[in-house]
Write a structure and sequence with these properties.
Elements: E1 3-7, H1 27-34, E2 38-41, H2 43-46, E3 56-59, E4 62-65, H3 72-89, E5 91-96, E6 107-109, E7 117-119, H4 123-130, E8 134-137, H5 141-152
Parallel strand pairs: 1-2, 1-5, 5-8
Antiparallel strand pairs: 3-4, 6-7
Length: 154
């Protein structure tokens, strides 16, 4: 069975920087969970960041907090642990939280802490894609489900 790594916050875990979740109540996620496909993971917590924690954004090639603290190492460590978990579980795709500096698949915040989004990928999403794990946001669950079906049809 092909598994799917899913951002823990999308599954209702309170692991976001502000101590909240970003639960994505969706039939696709519910079905995958009941089928035992879901691998829950939060790269930021796995990288050693606490809950709650200062918000962070990508600025150039670094991940920084609003006060300028460089937290890139924690984001990289979390991404590497997420990749290890995905590989160990046999995940061929991931559903990750859009806009996150870890998990954003198409957009992230621009590093100015003004709420400005730009095209780009978070650290974990980029690492997954570079290693052949296809990434979808919570807004593209139907597309993720179709992709999974195409993999299983092979």
């Amino acid at each position: 069975m092909i598994r799917v790594l899913v951002s823990a916050c999308l599954l209702g875990e309170r692991v976001r920087y502000d101590g909240r979740d970003a639960a994505a109540h969706d039939d696709v996620l519910d079905r995958w969970t009941s089928e035992g496909r879901v691998v829950r993971f939060c790269p930021e917590v796995a990288g050693g960041l606490g809950v709650p924690r200062p918000s962070a954004e990508i600025r150039g090639s670094a991940v920084v907090t609003a006060d300028g603290t460089d937290v890139t190492a924690a984001f990289v460590a979390g991404a590497e642990r997420a990749l290890e978990a995905a590989r160990a579980a046999g995940a061929a795709l991931a559903v990750l939280k859009e806009n996150s500096p870890s998990c954003g698949s198409t957009h992230v915040y621009d590093g100015t802490f003004t709420g400005t989004r730009v095209a780009g990928q978070g650290v974990t999403a980029a690492l997954f894609e570079a290693n052949g794990i296809r990434v979808f946001s919570e807004r593209r669950l139907a597309e993720a489900a179709a992709y999974l079906e195409s993999l299983e049809a092979r």
